[in-house]
Amino acid sequence: MTKEQREPPERPGVLLPEMARHLFGRPATQRYPAERIPVPKGFRGRIEVSDEHCIGCSKCALVCPTDCIEMVSDERDVAMGARTVHRKKKPIVHLMSCIRCGLCEEACPTDPKAIYLTEAFGGAYERKDVVVG
Amino acid sequence: MPEVELPIGPQHPALKEPVSFRVLVDGERIVRLDLDVSYNHRGVEKGAEGREFPKALYLIERICGICSHAHATNFAKGVEALMGVTVPPRGQWIRTLVAELERLHSHLLWLGVLAHEIGYNTLFMYTWRDRETIQDLLEEISGNRVNYGMNRLGGVRRDVSDDLRSRALEGLRGLADRAGFYSRIIREEQTLLVRTRGVGRLPRDRAIALGAVGPTARGSGVDFDVRRDDPYVAYGDVPLHVMTSSASDVFGRLEVRVREIEESVRLCTHLLENLPSGDIAAKAPRVAPQGAYVSRYEAPRGELVHYIRTNGTDKADRVSVRTPTLANWLSVVEAIQGRVIADIPVVVAAIDPCLSCTSRTTFVDTGTGDRSAMEWDDLVAYGIRYYREREGLP
Amino acid sequence: MSALVLALYLFVFPGFLFLLGFAWFAEWWDRKLLARLQHRVGPPFLQPFADFVKLLSKENVVTEGVSARLQAALPLVAFAAVATAFLYVPLLGASPFGAPGDLVLVLYLLTLPTILLFVLGWTSRNVFARIGAVRAASQLFVYEVPFFLACLGPALAAETWAVADVVNAQASGLWTFLLQPLGFAVAIVALQAKLERTPFDIPEAETELVAGPLTEITGRKLAIWNLARDIALVTGAALLVALYLGGPTVPGVALEGLAGAAIGFGAFFVKTLLVLAVLAAIRAAVGRIRIDQLVTWGWAVLTPLALAQIAIAIVLRGVGWP
Predict the structure, then answer these.
(1) C-alpha–C-alpha distance, residues C160 and A54, integer Å
(2) Closest to C150 (Cα-Cα) out of C27, C274, C220, C236
(3) pLDDT, tens digit, for every residue of B64-82?
(4) Alpha-carbon gap, residue B289 to B308, rounded angstroms
(5) Phi/psi class of residue A99: alpha, beta or left (left: φ > 0; alpha: ψ in -120 to 50)?
(6) Which of A73, A126, B75, B112 suits a disulfide with B127, CB 3.0-4.6 Å?
(7) If we measure between CA atoms, which residue out of C10, C8, C9, C49 comes closest to residue C26?
(8) CB contact under 8 A, C206 and B12
(9) For chain C, domain boundaries
């Protein structure tokens, strides 16, 4: 009888060989926060607002699926390309509702983007950080 | 011992999400099982009515965490059909790639959960460790481990670079070995076999009569898979084998899912190796013309149906979601008949229940066939009346 | 032995204080091994002690209609039973409490916790606890017979009912498990069922019965019960070491004086850790079986094997070997 024809017997403890291998090896656990977790490029991390680039067009607030972007009054002269724009408002983001979809970043017309997702791993650790911008 | 009622749920260590089983047991034997599934109702269908299509897409995606891409893609392709938008081939293939990766991670998760329900925690740990390979891959492709946000109306949002392709292929090769390993394990491990063989019998005709879908039905020999029988995205262009089992019990469903893991790894490899070039998205209009569309999708748990009705505006008129788990619950009630308490977590886990995908409330008068819906105030009044009567209050 | 030495033996070493430390160490050893076998990290060394302290600080909840005194007393009685059983196991040499027939006493004391678990679950006014209690009692009938038979084997070979004498009979290096390997295997499996660990953790099947008989037990009561469970683990392992692995003896080494006692204790400690490691490996290797499958398998396989081993032991004794 060839090896393929013979049915292996049903027995308990089929995982024992693999268990023995892992007993003396390194655990598979990533020891966060003692070890840093590597995040890939393009990871959807915490959202940030850039005050010096935002022209106050409100496109991000309009496109946000969870309506977590609120436009507040904040006047400032912002350079956009060769021109200078006088903006009237800028966005603040409520992190508790942000789903990090990145639609705001896609809609933002400035270059570099005034609202963008970073690769920062954490969220907000203090109450004051819950609103960004 | 006289018959006692065992309340499994809504909170119970066996359940990952709230569902309520009222089980009447005589000793260990189950006499009757009453099911109540509406604990995760969140009004998503109503929410989708009031939102523009791109926003509704993100809401629909979050019906479920494990099969999020299924909901998003199904909704997106339904709306695209109504708008008359054609997604370019590269976009379709990337959608399919993420769909198969999602099936992989969902089935590996399920295998671990089944092992945990049996008390076989070592297998649980190993399968979830191997699932991390797929999660890292999905994170590289989409930026997220669940709720990928890959879809936009007209295509996908992110491209797959060549560097990512080669790394993904390497990860998939390792996963193919592990899938073969698990396939061997489930056939040889005696404690797993004695807990799943012969448990939760669901003959083929009963599976069809009760409307079971997905691996639950395929485990009973029902040869139906939306990917093959009603192809969507790129499934018409790739070699697909539908896995069935004639075992018709929990082991049959286990077998089907493990073989689907192996098949998905093959599919993902094929998709990555033959990814067509070109655009990843087409431009979609803001408004959808009047119409209605039934969009079907083979989610990891079975056939997912979205009914979308539009009326010429930029919002959907009505979105109705029929998830696979909703279709599979009746098969649980049938399959558990005559079994013992110890089989409950096994039979329930075998349909891969996703309660977030389940809750619906419609009132049907079975006598006249009239369908009705209650207004909010009526529903509140009805609820108060109902519970007052049940608790014996004036 | 003077009263002072007896008191020290009873309360410090190897009595109460040592037993506490050893029980927590054994729980850590078991959980750490389980984790490493599962490719995980596992708990830090002080985890069992921390769990105990945490539970002591929790609110004491008593269900309406349940006798609070009974529920508080049962874990304490269980703790007392297994702690007393440990006193008869030889650690350094013979136990000063040893008496002819103390093997029977130890086995009886080790049975007590399961009966108490049944009473605890039955009187808890909780349907999960009740079903768990009935399962615990059913399981008791299945494993108790093979376990007693497996402990009878070494006693037969040494022709004594005193644990210390069984140990001394193995001092030449011919440990019982070499002569009765079948009995040793049955003893290990039956001990696993006695301690209600996977694959025999049926009374407390977490995914079926929440916590089985212990569903309503919280705070201090649960802390004491967990401690009793850990001590039962240690006592069971130590008993098997004494009966089958030669206890605190090292072949060829005379155990005299303080140095001898230290060597003996070291040997005992290492052997107990080995037995615990085997139990942890069994726990990791398989899944849980159903109560009806356990009953079938126990009576069809385990008890006949134990009986066969007894028969072989009797025949060997008859022909005067070894």
Answers:
(1) 91
(2) C236
(3) 889 999 999 999 999 999 9
(4) 12
(5) alpha
(6) B112
(7) C49
(8) no
(9) 3-318
User: C316: closest CA among C204, C199, C200, C159?
Assistant: C159
Condensed to tens digits (0 to 9), the pLDDT of residues B269-313 reads: 999 999 999 999 999 999 999 999 999 999 999 999 999 999 899
Residue with tokens 């696979």: B324
Q: Running DSSP on this structure, what letter comes out for residue C301?
A: I
What distance in Å separates the CA atoms of residue C196 and residue C139, rounded to the nearest whole number? 9
Residues 6+ apart with CB under 8 A from A31: C41
Structure confidence by residue, pLDDT tens digits, B339-377 = 998 999 999 999 988 887 776 555 556 677 665 666 667
Query: What is the strand order of the sheet A83-94 is part of?
Result: A69-80, A83-94, A131-132
Place of tokens 């979601």: B321
pTM of the model: 0.90
pLDDT, tens digit, for every residue of C243-282? 999 888 888 777 777 888 888 889 999 999 999 999 999 9
B161-198 exposure pattern, b = at least 16 Cβ within 10 A, e = fewer = eeebbeebeebbeebbebbeebeebbbbbbbbbbbbee
Residue A101 lies in a domain: yes
| pLDDT surpasses 70 at A1 | no
- Fill in the amino acid letter for C166: V
CA-derived radius of gyration, chain A: 25
Share of chain A above pLDDT 70, in %: 95
- Strand, coil or helix: what is B21? strand
- Structural domain containing residue A87: 47-132
- Residue B305 DSSP one-character state: E
Provide the ipTM: 0.92
Q: Are B324 and B357 in contact, with CB atoms under 8 Å apart?
A: yes
- Using CB atoms, which chains have 3+ pairs under 8 A with C? A, B
Residue C39's region, left for phi above 0, alpha for psi from -120 to 50, else beta, is left
Q: Which residue carries 């301690």 as its tokens?
A: C195
Using a CB-CB cut-off of 8 Å, the residues of chain C touching A25 are: 39
Q: Which of B51, B129, B143 sits opposite A43 (nearest CB)?
A: B143
Distances (CA, A) of B10 to B6, B15, B69, B350: 12, 8, 27, 19
Q: Residue C168 and residue C93: Cα distance in Å, rounded?
A: 9
In a domain, A78, yes or no: yes
Q: What span, in angstroms and rounded, lies between the C-alpha atoms of B225 and B303?
A: 8
- CA B387-B389-B390 angle, 5° bins: 65
Interface residue A101 vs chain B (CB under 8 A): yes
d(CA B220, CA B217) in angstroms, rounded, equals 5
The CATH number given to whatever domain includes residue A66 is: 3.30.70.3270
Structure tokens at A107: 């809609």
Q: How far is CA C211 from the centre of its chain?
A: 20
* CB contact (8 A) between residue B122 and residue C210: no
Chain center to CA of C118? 18
Contacts of residue B331, Cβ cutoff 8 Å, sequence gap at least 6: B202, B206, B207, B210, B212, B216, B351
Q: Is A19 within 8 Å of C286 when comparing Cβ atoms?
A: no
* Among candidate residues B346, B14, B30, the one with its CA nearest the CA of residue B196: B346
Strand partners, A86: A77
- Which amino acid would we find at residue B215? P
The tokens of B27 are what?
Answer: 């000793």
Half-sphere exposure of B16 (CA within 13 A, CB side): 18
Q: Is the residue at A27 inside a domain?
A: no
Closest CA to B336 of B243, B206, B193, B221: B206
Q: Which residue is it, tokens 């697909």?
A: B240
